[in-house]
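Recall the central idea of this unit: under ordinary conditions, the amino acid sequence of a chain determines the structure it adopts. In this exercise we apply that idea directly, starting from the sequence alone.
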Amino acid sequence: MEYGQYQPILSPTESWPRGVGKAWYRSVGQARIQLSAQPNTTPLSNDERVVVPSTKCALLDASVRKCFNSEPPIPILIDVAEQKQDAPDADLHDIRLVWEYGNGEDQVPTLLRLTMVCPFKPTSQPTQTSAEAHQLSSSKG
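Accordingly, the structure predicted from this sequence is:
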């Protein structure tokens, strides 16, 4: 199991509102490509400090597998955020993984807070139509 595989199983994309499901596949693919190009130095979790996946995508996948394969399974709270405009890698996806340990910091986690950080997208400015531009230039004279 890896990030992007379980979402359509839990909730088929055809049932997502306004056709978001179709766009979601493309977005997940882009995130996986970008995260696969980013090196990782963070251990999987406190109870598995020696497991250090080589990329952020591998860390994300290992975290998802850990949640699904643990007994009992570890719940995941997912959030989506957008990079800040002035962030060093504002045009790239990133992840934030925060494990909670209800039974002690060196025990198996009890919750994963996963934030998918999407690239910054400037809001599109409305473009002037040629008629609006003509009106503006006419009213100046």
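The chain has four helices and three strands.
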